[in-house]
Amino acid sequence: MKCPFCHHEDTRVVDSRLGKDGNNVRRRRECPSCERRFTTYERVEEILPYVIKKDGRREPFDRAKIVSGMQRACEKRPVSMEQIEALVDRLERHFQECGDKEIPASLIGEAVMDALHETDEVAYVRFASVYRQFKDINEFMTELTDLLKNSGKG
Questions:
Q1: Position 1 pLDDT exceeds 70
Q2: What is the CA radius of gyration of the chain?
Q3: Could you tell me whether strands 102-104 and 50-52 are parallel, antiparallel, or unpaired per DSSP bridges?
Q4: Where are the chain's structural domains?
Q5: Cα distance between the two ends of the chain
Q6: pTM for this structure?
Q7: Cα 98 to chain centroid, rounded
């Protein structure tokens, strides 16, 4: 690691500790040339895939967009922010572990709907109505009928 003060190429680690959140390592380093100390943080580089939009554009995976969409769907529902964060963590981890460099946006949308379906059916219907862009009330009713059949209430 290069010294930030004198730019000497080789520094040594004096102390290492797990970071506060447990997701990084805090290292105290010392430069043998200028003898100054500094702190570095080491963390795993998260490689998230690019998202292929419907129109063919590609953009980086954006966790905030998923959280925002789920928050809107879960508004005034008994779903906590912690639950939403946990769902998004699970989705993000899934897409990270799948190893694909690019994924279609439709795959993300379907995964979000599946997660909401398991969590809160009203939030699921809200998200699905926006995501699937129902053309008329009949498409919406078909989705609701399927939901009722699958949940054993219909």
A1: yes
A2: 23
A3: parallel
A4: 12-43, 50-151
A5: 64
A6: 0.63
A7: 14
Strands 37-43 and 58-60: unpaired
Pair 12, 32: CB distance under 8 Å: yes
Helix (H) or strand (E) holding 50: strand 50-52
What is the DSSP-derived secondary structure letter of residue 10?
-
Residue (of 100, 80, 78, 77) closest to 88 by Cα position: 80
Using an 8 Å Cβ cutoff, are 36 and 22 in contact? no
What tokens does 138 get? 């009949």
- 90-116 pLDDT, tens digit per residue, is 999 899 888 889 999 999 999 999 999
Contact 27, 15 (CB under 8 A): yes
- Identify residue 60 by its one-letter amino acid code: P
DSSP H or E run through 38: strand 37-43
* DSSP at 140: H
Residue with tokens 């059916």: 121
Contact yes or no for 61/49 (Cβ under 8 A) = yes
Q: C-alpha angle 84/134/130, rounded to 5°?
A: 25
